[in-house]
UniProtKB/TrEMBL annotation, chain A:
Its main location: membrane. Residues 81-283 form the ABC-2 type transporter transmembrane domain. It holds the Pfam family ABC2_membrane_3. It is found in: Membrane. It comes from the Bacteria. Keywords: Membrane, Transmembrane, Transmembrane helix. InterPro entries: ABC2_TM. It comes from Isoptericola cucumis. The chain crosses the membrane at residues 41-66, 86-112, 133-159, 179-202, 209-230, 265-286. It is a multi-pass membrane protein. This is ABC transporter permease.
From TrEMBL, chain B:
The lineage of its organism: Bacteria, Bacillati, Actinomycetota, Actinomycetes, Micrococcales. This is Multidrug ABC transporter ATP-binding protein. SMART domains: AAA. PANTHER family: ABC TRANSPORTER, ATP-BINDING PROTEIN. Residues 303-325 are annotated as: Disordered. SUPFAM superfamilies: P-loop containing nucleoside triphosphate hydrolases. Belongs to the ABC transporter superfamily. Residues 2-227 form the ABC transporter domain. Transmembrane segments: none annotated.
Length: 291, 325
């Protein structure tokens, strides 16, 4: 490797054109960072495939049920199944509970991998006000999630259409509840991304952030669903319905509202509230702490 | 121009940088010299706004770093090699940083060329050697054509050719009227590159002077004498106020007396001299003398050091005892 002699340097004309840092430029930089990592690209692809795959699986199952009288009867008598308020929308949004893990991990890693690699110091040297970098990351991950999930739902809709049609369970876009649930699926996952980005920025360690997010979005709801079923205590009901995922995913639900859970928009607002609080906390600490 | 005033950084009970005031002027290379843990990196991180000072202020080109609208055009910093995500290529890393300041891709390719990274520009940084990582760090520092350069241990991990290149680059940039602030824990490196030197130890400024002044001022001149009547000679010299140390090979190291005065003292005492050699202290010794009390991490194996440098070992031992108390 031979280095050029410094005589060809920088300072010789033509002068280097350097502009001031604007949010649009920081956003462009964050987008470059996002798309140049193979891991992020793969995670995005896997998220979409999970959404589509679960939709196909569930659609096939419903089709099978429609063709098998005993199975249909079993489903009709299963209260848990009925509470899902089974519709075509339920089928194509089913993958969200797994996609949310991929989205959460991706969003957290966008921040934590900069801390673990030291990249954050390059980022903050270029954007010393720091907050534009955080908001740019937020915009990148939220917009990416919205686009990817919307596309995945679109593909899921198309590939399951013939199967669901035969099961007499098509997505009804004239039903406001189903439209709300479809849009809600996109909104929920985008909000999970924002929530997770904030957790990543607060914790700054990949393993810790991922553990926390898996606990919040996966483990706690399972534990509380058992606790709620086993206990009569009112507080368990309240904690359960206020869990970020349990509250937030109400926006994706269809069918009769439940008396132990929040209404769809109320539930979503709870998740959005947590997210705003975490983002503010992340912004304050990011500004104050040493990089 | 970098101006630090009363700059202080405390990590818990430990004072990493203690009320430091200095100015780094444009047009010359200023070395920032100190043992490991002396506070060099912390100071540089405070200059670039990465660490928040506990007290005091530091400005670059007249403003705190974070208040510059285009910081990369003001300050180019190499703070540590590989402040880079290993999954990106060198070019992608530079492009992402360039984007924040609307710097054209042509400039990205220019700094790649300038730092000799062209053959590996499209390879992922994860596979880079320490030397290539340093070159990438220098490329980042040069990206915005900054008026001030801050280079923390820039020659770390570079091969001899790379070391020479950094030296010439630093001098060249200073020659263009830029401010170049370069840290090292090696006196010899600073002496070869810098015109001015700021020495830091245990978070305090020990010296802020030209390299030549440091050499003249801090050097401790000794004279090596050899005599068959070493004991009598030592007694005679001590009476004259000299500090006499027995060398490992039977010679005496005498401090505090000129060679001529030693010869006269020997003659007066009727002692035969076999050798009388003035010892000019080296750069490294001047630096050691300056930082002897402020070395944060002493080597465990004092015996190995004592064989080579008896006089220094005594100082170290004294320091260690002081610490123990």
């Amino acid at each position: 490797m031979t280095a050029a002699t410094p005589t060809t340097s920088a300072a010789t004309p033509p002068a280097v054109v350097v502009h001031r840092v604007t949010f649009a430029r920081v956003l462009r930089a964050e987008w470059i960072k996002f798309r140049t990592l193979r891991s992020t690209v793969w995670t995005v692809v896997i998220t979409a495939l999970v959404m589509i795959g679960f939709a196909l699986m569930m659609a096939s199952l419903m089709r099978l049920a429609a063709d098998t009288p005993e199975m249909a009867e079993g489903m009709n008598n299963d209260p848990g199944f009925q509470s899902l308020g089974m519709s075509g929308t339920t089928v194509i949004t089913l993958g969200y509970s797994f996609a949310q893990l991929a989205v959460a991990v991706l969003a957290a890693l966008i921040v934590t991998n900069e801390y673990s690699t030291g990249m954050i110091r390059s980022t903050f040297a270029a954007v010393p006000k720091r907050l534009p970098a955080l908001w740019a990351k937020l915009v990148v991950i939220v917009l990416t999630t919205v686009v990817v999930i919307a596309l995945a739902l679109g593909v899921a809709y198309l590939v399951t259409l013939p199967i669901l049609d035969a099961a007499n369970l098509t997505v009804d876009l004239s039903d406001p509840e189903q439209v709300r649930a479809l849009g809600g699926c996109v909104l929920y996952l985008a909000t999970v991304a924002a929530f997770s980005l904030a957790v990543g920025a607060l914790m700054r360690h990949s393993a810790g952030a991922i553990f926390t997010l898996v606990a919040i979005f996966f483990v706690l709801p399972i534990i509380f669903s058992i606790v709620v079923a086993a206990s009569d205590a009112a507080w368990t009901d309240w904690v359960n319905k206020l869990l970020p995922s349990v509250a937030g995913e109400r926006i994706i639900s269809t069918g009769p509202s439940s008396d132990v859970l929040l209404d769809p928009w109320v539930g979503y607002s709870v998740l959005a509230g947590y997210t705003v609080v975490l983002l503010v906390a992340a912004a304050v600490t990011l500004k104050r702490r040493d990089a | 121009m970098i101006e630090a005033h009363g700059l202080t950084k405390r990590y818990g009970p430990k004072l990493a940088v203690d009320d430091v005031t200095f100015t780094v002027r444009p047009g010359v290379v200023t070395g920032f010299l100190g043992p490991n843990g002396a506070g060099k990196s912390t100071t540089m991180r405070m200059i670039t706004g990465l660490d928040r000072p506990t007290a005091g202020t530091v400005t670059v080109n007249g403003r705190p770093y974070a208040q510059h609208r285009a910081p990369l055009a003001e300050v180019g910093a190499l703070l540590e090699a590989k402040a880079v995500h290993p999954g990106r290529t060198a070019r992608q890393h530079l492009q992402a940083l360039a984007a924040t300041h609307g710097i054209a891709t042509a400039r990205v390719d220019e700094v790649i060329e300038l730092t000799g990274l062209t053959p590996v520009a499209r390879k992922r940084v994860g596979g880079f050697s320490l030397g290539m990582g340093q070159r990438l760090g220098v490329a980042v520092a040069l990206l915005g054509d900054p008026r001030t350069l801050i280079l923390d241990e820039p020659v770390n991990g570079l091969d001899p050719e790379g070391v020479l290149w950094v030296r010439n680059l630093a001098k060249y940039l200073a020659g263009q009227g830029r401010t170049v602030f370069l840290s090292s824990h090696l006196m010899s490196e600073v002496a070869l590159t810098a015109d001015h030197v700021i020495v830091i130890g245990r978070g305090r400024i020990l010296a802020d002077m030209s390299v030549q002044e440091l050499l003249d001022g801090a050097s401790r001149r000794t004279v090596r004498v050899r005599s068959p009547q070493a004991t009598a000679l030592a007694d005679a010299l001590r009476r004259d106020g000299a500090e006499v140390t027995a060398g490992d090979d039977g010679a005496l190291d005498v401090a505090g007396l000129e060679a001529a005065r030693i010869g006269e003292a020997a003659a007066a005492a009727g002692v035969v001299l076999h050798e009388l050699t003035p010892q000019a202290s080296t750069l490294e010794e001047a630096y050691m003398a300056l930082t002897a009390d402020s070395v944060e991490y002493h080597a465990e194996d004092v015996a190995a050091v004592s064989a080579a440098e008896p006089s220094r070992t005594r100082e170290q031992a004294a320091t260690s005892e002081g610490e123990a108390r």
